[in-house]
Amino acid sequence: MQNFSRIKFPFILTAVLLVVIGCAGRQKFKKIDVPEAAMRSYLADKPVKLRPGFRAMLEEGKRNYVLNNMRVGIDALQIGHLEIAKKCFDNALNHIEAVFADNEKAKKARSLWYEEGMKDFKGEPYERVMAYYYRGLLYLADKDYENARACFKAGIIQDAFAEENQNRCDFALLLFLEGYSSLKLGDHQLATAAFNELKKLRPDFTVPSRDSNLLIIIETGTSPRKLADGVGHGELKFFRGRNIIEKRVTLYIDNKEFTAYPIEDVAWQAMTRGGRPVDKIIKGQVQFRKTHEKIGTTLTDISSNLLLASPVTSHSDTLSGVSAALGILGVAEMALAARTRTHADTRYWDNLPDSVHLVCLKIAPGSYQLRTKYLNGSSVKISEDIETIKIPALDANSTILLWKRPGINYISGD
Amino acid sequence: MFSANLNKIEYFSKVSLSKLGAALFSLAIFSFGCATVPEHSGTAAHYVDPGQQSEVSGVGLESQDIINMTDKMMHDILATPIFSKPKTPPKVIIDSEYFKNESSTRINKNMITDRLRTGLNQAARGKMIFVGREYMNMVLKELQLKQLGVINEGESASEPKAYGGDFRLGGRISTLDSVNPKTGSFARYHQILFEMIDLNTGEIVWSGSYNFKKVGQEDIIYR
User: Fold this and answer.
1) How far is A150 from chain B (nearest CA, A)?
2) Is the CB of B13 less than 8 angstroms away from the CB of A150?
3) I want to staple A10 with a disulfide (CB 3.0 to 4.6 A). Which of A121, A148, A189, A327 is the partner?
4) Is it the case that residue A229 has pLDDT exceeding 90?
């Protein structure tokens, strides 16, 4: 009976361990349990359409604070709640700008036992750049061209982090906006410097004239996606968003046609970033996992063979004991391997556009009919927006910003 | 020899097997449970010294920079004879109208110029007269009412008239950024220039600058 239990022990242990480690697949992140009364009070003054985002902000806490602020920021912009949008992007940027060194969560995210997604989200460079882009646009709408330019310049710096082999930015959208802000400030030298950089990336782009007073920015398509691929899902891959049909945009202002210039491909920016240093850490974790899995399998195989051989030898008790010990070690190795969390962080800013197009004009004050046609790659119309825009009288150094997505628009100075 | 070894193994297996199994089993139970990570409960709001670097810090302009730079400029201006030993107190405009931000740091420039003006106003003790140009509309409305005779002219002015400035603050915030994508380190050099301009001649009668460089390196997980 004693012999039987000793022989069976490793297998019982194996079964128990496998059941226990079975749940170590993906790490779960606990939501903050906010009492419903407190939640209701927090959401009471928030616009109804933004409440799900604000709820998530509270429940998901610091880990997704930046991400939720980014998401709510765009949602707020889309429904014209600019003060909320500004606050959200300020919140996101304040965290992006803080240097996260000696951060406890970052330390854990580097370890074998936690997923990369453990860290507080700050986004990949293209996401950080876009946060600066939106905050900059909001400053531009307020005619605070200095802070708008500061945002665009800071976004350009973030993009440099994505360029592994070149310490320069290739985010044409931000270079344009930096130049445009300088143009509106009358800093022509700085504007020229930014536009010269832009021309290196977009040689066919026509630099706006000093007296242009209407900037139309049109965003199309869905956000780039992140997926975990490879062994242990440790490899982060970027993909273009799904169901993107709009490729080009044509505008008609009182029937006069303007082709919007496709200044930025956000998905391309996401997909072409250089290798992340953290990928090497995850690769090491995957290797650790594979090695321990291999050792565990080998040990349990030997254990099984010894167990099978034990009845035919004169040292059957001894061999059973050795088999049991090796079995336990093998299972422990396998458990160690299974406990290693190698899944890459696939959280992403999911209401970003795929592409950004723009038109720059000089236009007299007045009321105009604006028709926006969204076309596919073969120039076939997908959808159309028709609206009336009012251009107020402006001083020479001011501009009106019209920000558009299909079916949505915001115009500054209304 | 082989038999002796087997005996040792047998001894080991009999004596230690149950202990080893129990230890491993306990370890497994404690360490292999489903890992969920709770959110931190936060920190209660509390006062901190704005002159000290805070826990959350970046490479941009922060409260301690604003305090240090305005203190330095204030002392420098007060040590300049044209302001410290004037024959008649000069009328000075200190606001952000001509204080430009060409940097990559978002900033409310009023934070700098407001602190500089209030500091100087308190320390100058009548040696300078500060003109609130940003309140011009307020002043004009009052003057209009006085000129219309709707209200009396108050006690101080025989002929109500807004002050013109003798000197006005100008300046520029500029930055130089550098990034090393391989190491994740980045640096920002700030150069903040303050100048006092004679509004009658355009002469720059005083200049001061405050420069600093901050470097940081993100945890590798964020690079």
Assistant:
1) 4
2) no
3) A327
4) no
- Spatial distance between the Cα atoms of A178 and B109, rounded to a whole number of angstroms: 19
Answer for the pair B78, B120: CB distance below 8 angstroms, yes or no.
yes
Nearest CA in chain B to A34: B41
The shortest CB-CB distance from B36 to any of A30, A99, A146 is to: A30
Mean pLDDT of chain A: 85
d(Cα A375, Cα A380) in Å, to the nearest integer? 5
> What three-state secondary structure class fits A390?
strand
A154·B180 Cβ contact <8 A: no
Q: What is the token pair recorded at A400?
A: 């009106």
Residue of chain A with shortest Cα separation from B172: A146
CB-based contact, A110 to chain B, within 8 Å = yes
CA atoms within 13 A on the CB side of A414: 11
- Give the minimum alpha-carbon distance from A103 to chain B in angstroms, rounded to a whole number: 8
Cβ contacts of A171 within 8 Å, gap of 6 or more: A129, A155, A156, A159, A264, A269
N-to-C CA span, chain A: 88
CA atoms of B212 and B191, how far apart (whole Å):
7
Evaluate whether the domain defined by B63-222 bears CATH number 3.40.50.
Answer: yes
Q: Is A313's Cβ below 8 Å from some Cβ in B?
A: no
Q: Do A150 and B105 touch (CB under 8 A)?
A: yes
pLDDT mean over A155-165 = 76
Q: Kindly report, residue by residue over B7-57, the tens digit of the pLDDT.
A: 554 554 454 555 555 555 444 444 444 445 555 556 677 788 877 776 667
Q: Which residues of B touch A122 (CB under 8 A)?
A: 222
Which of A135, A157, A149 minimizes the C-alpha distance to A178? A149
